[in-house]
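Blinded run. Sample ID left blank on purpose so nobody reads anything into the name before looking at the predicted structure. Input follows.
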Amino acid sequence: MFTQYKLPFAHDALEPVIDTLTMETHHGKHHAAYTATLNTLAEKAGVQTMEITELLAGLDQISDLTLRTGIRNNGGGYYNHNLYFSTISPDGGGEPQGALGKKITETFGSFENFREQISALALTQFGSGWAWLSVTPSGDLVLSNSANQDNPISLGTGNIPIFTIDVWEHAYYLKYRNLRPSYVKAFFDVINWEAMEENYLRALT
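Blinded prediction complete.
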């Protein structure tokens, strides 16, 4: 059974960057629905005991096309949102330190360059989707974006995501309306770099 990520803070804790109603709707309704639907479909497909990363990496093993598509969408929504919500915090913001901060500077030249590049991917993702920071099998950092509920795992890249920016309209539209750039800019004030550092070090093992 797949378990929805439980927020370690109240729905209003990310104000003013992310408003209370958005958090209530995004986490309490959208993410909850992805989790519930995934569990239903996974049981029908007989894959309910698999780890989510294993499941998304092996979607071709599900012979029923309807179930495969449903698990791709809802499994992606489950995984993507678990990562998204676990890397934001009311105590977030600033710049990364430690091994991740060093690797970001080494890879992108500076934190500001990293911020500009991942923001550009978030802003140029047409329609609903995500911008990603991932670790390659060789330990390098790479940026990408993807549509709908796809991610680097379901797309078969072999990379491990450690951070994502959700650019589905339900993530920001109640507060920012059609101003996605304002949402992406403000989003950096709630990024939990300590959680990302943990994700980075885990991906290297």
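Unblinding after everyone has recorded impressions. The CA atoms of residues 71 and 123 lie 27 Å apart.
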